[in-house]
Amino acid sequence: MIAENIKKELLDRFTKELREPVTLLLFTDEFPSEASEDTRLILRDLSELSTKIETKIFNQVKKRELVESFAIDKFPSTLILDKDGNDSRIRFYGSVAGYELGSLVHDIVQVSRGETSFSKRVSEELKKLSTPVHIQVFVTSNCILCPKAVRLAHEAAMLNPLVKADCIEVTEFLEYVEKYEIRGVPKTVINEKVHYLSLVTEEEFLEYIHKAIF
Description:
The chain is α/β, with parallel strands linked by helices and 214 residues long. It has two domains: 4-113, Glutaredoxin, CATH 3.40.30; 120-213, Glutaredoxin (3-Layer(aba) Sandwich), CATH 3.40.30. 42% of the residues lie in helices and 22% in strands. Strands 2-1-3-4-6-5-7-8 form an eight-stranded mixed beta sheet, covered by helices on one side. Helix 4 runs parallel beside helix 6 (146-159). The protein starts with a helix and ends with a helix. The relative contact order is 0.14.
């Protein structure tokens, strides 16, 4: 699924940047869809590029208790666990092909290193959040701007256990198009209360979170 030239780039990056092992969990549809199969093959390719990346694949029907424990409500879904098996609260819903692959690779590296790219001030503010925050970022596989929006959401989840962040391939979950009036991507929804379109700075992102919880 991943082109050979991209594999070479990823092999070099993983060799240089991965620090601790991570585990990728894939929960497929009951009858694995094309998106599930594509994602399985992509995760397989990633695992083959580094001994620090392990992939586990489950059918959602056969692992209902595990699905419930992770509060997963869409399939296929991809999760990342850290070296101790802790949930990073990062979710990819739908295929991770296209630009979502870049988002997934970035998250693998950041979880492995236990780092984010936020400034010190924003990091401290995100860590201080004491109210649950659910961030949904709606994307498409050919959206060049989407990975930056996903990065903000997912890195916030890495910093605070009260934050859960979803990257959702909207073309695979069309029911959300009308629900959230999605007319373009990336579209971000926070706690069902705050909606915004396109990219924002990390400072603006923090402001939107505060608006959603206060």
